[in-house]
Amino acid sequence: MPGPFTLILKAKPNICDIVGFDTVGVRIPNSALALDILNKMGPMTTTSVNDSGSVALNDYETIYNKYNDLVDEIYKPCGESSNLASTVVKIENDEIKILREGAIKLSDIKKIINK
After folding, report:
1. pLDDT for 86
2. What is the per-residue pLDDT across 43-78, written as a single tens digit (0 to 9) for each?
């Protein structure tokens, strides 16, 4: 981290009350703009612009046209977006579960953990 990696963790009870789920996904983006916003605003609860089971949205104009009337701000990326989805990992009972394999492969994760 930072990068295309989301770690699903068990939420503390006070967080469960806020988000309505017993788990949270933690991701640190590899984007200067996103990191600047996070540094100024603190951690954020967000969702993906992608609809589950649909093709990932990576084109700014497509995202803008679809969501502009639903949010206050859509920031134009400062560089190219990856066409690869982030890898989503959940750790339960000391077992690594890949919920979605994306840019980072399970073999890469195991190499880091076993160091």
Report:
1. 83
2. 887 777 877 778 878 888 999 999 999 988 888 877
Pairing of strands 5-10, 23-26: antiparallel
Q: Which two tokens stand for residue 112?
A: 């880091």
| DSSP tag of 90 | E
- The DSSP code sequence of 25-36 is EE---S-HHHHH
Strand partners, 87: 5
Amino acid at 64: Y
Q: Which residue has the tokens 């977006």?
A: 81
Identify the three-state secondary structure at position 73: coil
pLDDT for the residue 39: 93
Q: How far apart are CA 26 and CA 3, in angstroms?
A: 11
Q: How many other β-carbons are positioned within 10 Å of the β-carbon of residue 89?
A: 20
| Mean pLDDT, rounded, of the chain | 84
Residue 29: exposure state from Cβ atoms within 10 A (0-12, 13-18, ≥19):
middle
